[in-house]
Design brief:
The chain has about 230 residues and is an all-alpha fold. Helices cover about 80% and strands about 0% of the residues. The protein is globular.
Length: about 230
């Protein structure tokens, strides 16, 4: 993990990236939180959401710290970047089904469901945030502390915004694509080559971003066409 050795402007730019990715990938987690607590009385619901989210946040921070450490191992930055390319593509084409999430009937049951579900769904978020933060732990923690309350209490508004403006998903996927390709070019075994050939680095990043957006767009077009034929 790196110490903060970047300019103030770069720090806040990276922080905004981390928060944006957190918000983008945490929409499904917010839905799960609501589903897990839906059968509880209103007063107990608030406690379940607060405690469950707090527990999930601690696990998320711990998991991200582990990933930040792992990304220092040779070739794992490359592997993480490739995984993030897939995550960026899946963000465009996936329609998650949350019907299998069981609602807790007790406070601790709901808390347990929230924490377990968030941990199971949070791998993409952890990898993306670790990459966007460029291995700076402070950025990870600040991003999570800022974005998680927004997700929990403002998730409905954010989800409505995404539904009304689908381009936000494409923008988010492009950001993830940039983060993924940047991770790959910063892999220690490859970094010197990309440093010596900056034009190739730019071309590689642009190709990855364009490839993700194009394949995602074409897949969505095919899915719409299949649905129209089925009607």
């Amino acid at each position: 993990m790196r110490t903060i050795d970047i300019s103030v402007l770069q720090f806040f730019w990276l922080l905004l990236n981390v928060i944006f990715i957190d918000l983008l990938l945490a929409g499904d987690n917010a839905i799960v939180i609501g589903l897990a607590a839906r059968k509880l009385p209103p007063a107990t619901q608030k406690k379940a959401i607060l405690y469950g989210t707090g527990g999930a946040l601690l696990i998320r921070i711990a998991a991200t710290i582990v990933v930040l450490w792992l990304l220092q191992v040779p070739w794992l930055l490359l592997i993480g970047g490739v995984m993030l390319v897939w995550i960026a593509y899946k963000l465009l084409v996936d329609q998650e089904d949350h019907a299998e999430v069981k609602a807790g009937t007790t406070l601790w049951g709901a808390i347990r469901t929230i924490i377990v579900a968030d941990a199971a769904m949070g791998l993409d978020n952890v990898i993306a945030v670790a990459g966007a933060a460029q291995q700076h732990l402070l950025l990870v923690v600040l991003g999570l502390l800022i974005s998680v309350p927004i997700v929990v209490w403002g998730s409905t508004l954010f989800i409505k915004l995404i539904n009304k403006s689908p381009w936000i998903i494409y923008l988010g996927s492009a950001v993830l694509g940039y983060t993924a390709s940047n991770m790959i070019t910063e892999e220690r075994k490859l970094a010197s080559y990309f440093t010596e050939h900056p034009a190739l680095r730019i071309l590689f990043i642009a190709t990855v971003m364009a490839g993700i957006l194009l394949t995602g767009y074409l897949q969505n077009r095919r899915a719409v066409s299949r649905r129209e034929k089925a009607v």
